[in-house]
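Q: Here's a chain of 513 amino acids. Please give me its 3D structure as tokens.
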Amino acid sequence: MKNDLKLKLLFVFGVLVASLYIIFTKPVKLGLDLQGGMSIVLEVDVDHVIETQYKQLAKEIENKLQENGIEVLTVEVEDTKGIVISLLDPSKIDKAYKIIKEEYPQLVIKTEDGSLKLSFHPKELERIKKLTIQQAVETLRNRIDQFGTLNANIARMGEKRILVELPGVVDPERAKNIIGKTAQLELLEVIDTAYSKEELLKRYPEGLPKGTKILEGIPKIINGKEVKEYFLVKDTPIITGAMLKDARTTVDQAGNPAVNFELTDEGAKIFGEATTKLIGKRLAIVLDNKVISAPVIRSRISKSGQITGNFTPEEAADLAIILRAGALPAPVKILEERMIGPTLGKDSIQKTVRAGIAALVLVGLFMIWRYAISGFISVIALLFNGILLWAAMAFLDVTLTLPGIAGIILNIGMAVDANVIIFERIKEELRKGKTLRVAVEEGFKRAWDAILDAQITTLIAAFVLFQFGTGPLKGFAATLSIGTITSIFTAIFVTKLFLDIVLGGKKSLKYAF
């Protein structure tokens, strides 16, 4: 029995030392409401994704029909409504219907006036919307992590909106620039250039060549004047940002900030073959439909390349961050932005800390008055629970919010509640005439079911809050759930251990309960 107690005591001591080490080496992160910072609400252009997918499908379906001997007269994409396909030979509409139905089960197909009208099934539309928001959240999280802003809270709001909270942010404009850029990178072959769009259009009186488009370049200073170049480019990119493996800041030959990029194996192969054919021609490096730079290809390029432009060091660093994190699946629009000062946070921390200390002292005094020696042991267990809770929050990178502090204070009462149930059970056993040792053992056994039931229901409520809540509510749910788990450990294991040590082999002890 003594060896068993020694092992348990050694285990508790080890947990205490480990917890204190975590507390002193890894501070708990503070949320927006405590630290101050920036709150942004974004709206994701989900319709853009739906329209883009319709355009891609339209090309695929046209090729598929032609492969099967069905000539297509026209293919039109009606924004987010769907695709309308007219056939050169309307008698083949049933055959076309069958091919599309087999190859594209996600589409609803209707025949009307000799044409095929295609649209996504409602479930497929819902899947696309959900996936778009999820991808946007993950991309934003990757960008912000690389940006260096800690403790960011990024959560979905409704069908199309995302809440981004950046505690402690010191450069709001830079943060907005990183968050708001779609960052769709494309490398396109340049056909022609001019210093005005009108001049470029005049060169093609019969219309632009098929499969081309005009893009605007970023302004440049030439001979003291700001000029802007326009590019006629092929609209099908050689490679896109999806084939990007890495991006890092560097300097170009003139010593100006630039970004080096590295491609995936697949991208390197495609780019190598393309640049071999483009030696002596210009290649447009396009970000969000704007030409950042258009260098002349001097030799074959495969694995890596460089993006140059009129970048400041900060702009180059931000571009590298955005490219590494990947493009957003759809354009986003900032609907609302708020700056929260740290003064409110400091006042809140001071008030809640005072409230926490007051709660701890009052609860401790009550327990000692009501349960004497056992009450004092419960206070020690309560302090141990607080240390364990704080260490767990630091270790798990839980962000502390104002409601989170409320959760910690609530946990004080809940942790003591478990001890109250145990002590009352022990007192019942003592009134039955059982010895102190037997009463303690029976009391803990009988209290276990009630404690477990109460804590499981609390954990379920905390899980629901964490799953469906945002920002501060998640902070409350996190501290509540962690505190619930630590309170079970301290009430059942730590309190029992200290009681066994104090009681020893005694059959009775004055003021024990």
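Q: Can you summarize the key feature?
A: The two ends are 23 Å apart (CA to CA).
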